[in-house]
Amino acid sequence: MMRRILAILSLLCLLATYAQAQSSTTVTQVVDLSLTNTIVLKFTATNSTSGSAVSLPISTVSNYTSGVTSSTYQLSASSTKAFNIAVKSNASNFTYTGSYTTGTTMPVSGSLSVQVTANSTGGSIANNFNSYQSVTSSNQNILTGCTSGSSKLFSIQYRANPSMSYPAGTYTTSVVYTATQQ
């Protein structure tokens, strides 16, 4: 009799365990991702939208006649769509700082040039910017058809070649790079 009771208890425990293992419930939830097109352009050295200051000292006759070149500066673009890169000066003329009051209006165009020295954006160098081209106050595409993705790199270099007709002092302009999605 004791064996029967133990056998029945064992069977009941087994059935209870089986019943618990077979019990389940399911719920679902919809998850929507709302993606927005985005683009970021920054200087890699500063990891920001502001590059370091570019100094182009012109101190000899040879500097005036042959021009002086800057170091190379690398930029990084990240975009969810294909894009173009344009360059321009923030003004038509340099801002002058110095002791002279006349003859200090130097145009940016013709005095300051830029070229693309490296390009891994998946796009093409535009408008002959694989060699030095004059910076103007109007946007000029320097790269076109760049492919979407993260950290698309390109490098630029400046050349200053002003005439000898401007007085000594510091001439300043801001060069603006714009990344635009296609």
Summarize the structure in words:
- The protein is mainly beta and 182 residues long.
- The protein is built from two helices and eleven strands; from the N terminus they run αβαββββββββββ.
- The protein has a five-stranded antiparallel sheet with strand order 1-2-9-5-7. Strands 6-8-3-11 form a four-stranded antiparallel sheet, with no helix packed on it.
Total count of helical runs of at least 4 residues: 2
- Our estimate of the beta-strand percent is 35-45%
Radius of gyration over C-alpha positions, nearest whole angstrom: 33 Å
Structural class computed from helices and strand pairing:
mainly beta
Q: What's the number of extended β-strand segments?
A: 11
User: Quick check: average pLDDT?
Assistant: 92
Question: Which terms summarize this structure?
Answer:
182 residues; mainly beta; Immunoglobulin-like; five-stranded antiparallel sheet; four-stranded antiparallel sheet; 38% strand
Task: Outline the fold blueprint.
Blueprint: H1 2-22, E1 39-43, H2 61-66, E2 68-79, E3 83-89, E4 95-97, E5 112-120, E6 124-125, E7 133-134, E8 140-146, E9 149-160, E10 170-172, E11 175-181
Antiparallel strand pairs: 1-2, 2-9, 3-8, 3-11, 4-10, 5-7, 5-9, 6-8
